[in-house]
Specification:
With about 55 residues, this protein is mainly β. It has one domain (about 1-54): Ribosomal protein L33 (Rubrerythrin, domain 2). It contains one helix and four strands. The chain has one helix at about 1-5, and strands at about 10-15, 20-25, 35-40, 45-54. Strand 1 (about 10-15) and strand 2 form a beta hairpin.
Length: about 55
């Protein structure tokens, strides 16, 4: 079962400093577009947009 969980895993990368700060799951059947969230970046020390990467 762990391989199925890894299929839905995504990385969220900071748009300012380009660090990969977060990992999350996404239902790829319902969400076709890339995910963008406002999250806290500990390198920038502020809330910035994080985009989904491969």
């Amino acid at each position: 079962m762990p391989s199925k969980e890894r299929d839905n895993m995504i990385k969220l990368q900071c748009t300012v400093c380009k660090y990969t700060n977060y990992f999350s799951h996404k239902n790829k059947k319902t969400l076709k577009d890339r995910l963008e969230l406002e999250k806290y970046c500990r390198h920038c020390k502020k809330h910035v947009t994080h985009k989904e990467t491969k």
